[in-house]
Specification:
Rossmann fold; globular; binds adenosine-5'-triphosphate; binds nickel (II) ion; translocase; EC 7.2.2.11; nucleotide-binding; ATP-binding
Length: 305
């Protein structure tokens, strides 16, 4: 299984405006690799994940491709374009079976009036899996008696494990985790990241969306930095953290308390009014008139990197 995102763009139509939420995204994700998608709030990270799952609202237009190469079957190689498939295929074949979603706030994602066991059982039934809720939950680090609880009776860590168990119920080869550590304390952040790493080491492909560069550094093989709807740097994690190339990526790392602790001045542009050239130009210490032209993305999208 391999995911190849190729020229993926998402636009939202609003009365009198168009939101450029994702622009011309390109990346690959292979089994056993973890890609962390990082960037400031509102830059398009969640929209990208939802586009891959066909979960965008009706005012969205998605263009480009997101190919999912599946292991060859008797019928030959199987390729799905997640952008082009009808909802029926996404519902029956993709969500939960090929792609598992670990949501941003697990407690809110669970149905409040049903126990964890009932929700796991229903998901397993929908997916046609023979597993029991207890076996599934056990693999996610839950005890059988935890499953008798209702969502409000679960601690943050347990709710996270139930969400992980739900995402893994269909044994999907690709996992999308959208801010899986939001609101968790440091030990739980570390445990969640260790769990994502384990899923990866088992041979799954993992895309993790996070604000938390420290968490990304622990878990990711590759880093994609997103700014104002575009991926502006795509690099292997080790060189990225020692030598980021895009001025925005440098700024993000310099803003870390463990580094210089100096925030990037200014704010990202409105996605309804993006400039024709480099969107980081107004905040960039390296800006020159050249930046009025959109830089070509070649590992890094900057005229000066
Ligand atoms: N249904 C929609 N209609 C119009 N605009 C939308 C819609 N959904 C999202 N957007 C806009 O798309 C942009 C990208 O949002 P997205 O949720 O992907 O950001 P993000 O990078 O995930 O941020 P965060 O880190 O805060 O989760 C935002 O400007 C958001 O307002
Ligand atoms: Ni988001």
């Amino acid at each position: 299984m391999k995911l190849r995102v190729d020229g993926l763009s998402v636009r939202f139509r609003l009365p009198g405006a168009v939101v450029h939420a994702v622009t011309d995204a390109r990346f690959e994700l292979r089994p056993g690799r973890c890609l962390a998608l990082v960037g400031e709030s509102g830059c398009g990270k969640s929209v990208m994940a939802h586009a891959l799952l066909g979960l965008l609202p009706a005012n969205a237009t998605v263009t480009g491709h997101a190919w999912l190469d599946l292991p060859s079957s008797a019928a030959g190689n199987d390729v799905i374009d997640l952008v082009a498939e009808p909802e029926k295929v996404l519902a029956q074949r993709v969500r939960g079976r090929l792609i598992g979603l670990i949501p941003q706030s697990p407690a809110a994602h669970l149905t409040p009036v049903r126990t964890a066991r009932a929700q796991l059982a229903e998901t397993l039934r929908e997916l046609g899996r023979a597993d029991t809720p207890d076996a599934l939950a056990g693999r996610a680090g839950l005890r059988p008696r935890d499953l008798d609880r209702y969502p409000h009776q679960l601690s943050g860590g347990m709710a996270q494990r139930v969400a992980n168990a739900l995402a893994l119920a269909g044994d999907p080869p690709l996992i999308l985790a959208d801010e899986p550590t939001t609101g968790l304390d440091r030990p739980l952040v570390d445990a969640t990241m260790a769990e994502l790493r384990r899923l990866c080491d088992e041979g799954r492909a993992v895309l993790v969306i996070t604000h938390d560069l420290r968490a990304a550094e622990r878990v990711a093989d590759d880093i994609a930095v997103m700014y104002a709807s575009r991926i502006v740097e795509l690099a292997e994690a080790a060189p990225f953290f020692s030598r980021p190339r895009h001025p925005y990526a440098k700024g993000l790392l310099d803003a870390l308390p463990t580094r210089r602790f100096v925030p990037i001045p200014g704010r990202p542009p409105e996605l309804t009014r993006l400039p024709a050239g480099c969107a980081f130009q107004p905040r960039c210490p390296l800006a020159t008139p050249e930046c009025d032209d959109q830089p070509i993305m070649n590992g890094v999208a900057c005229h000066h990197a």
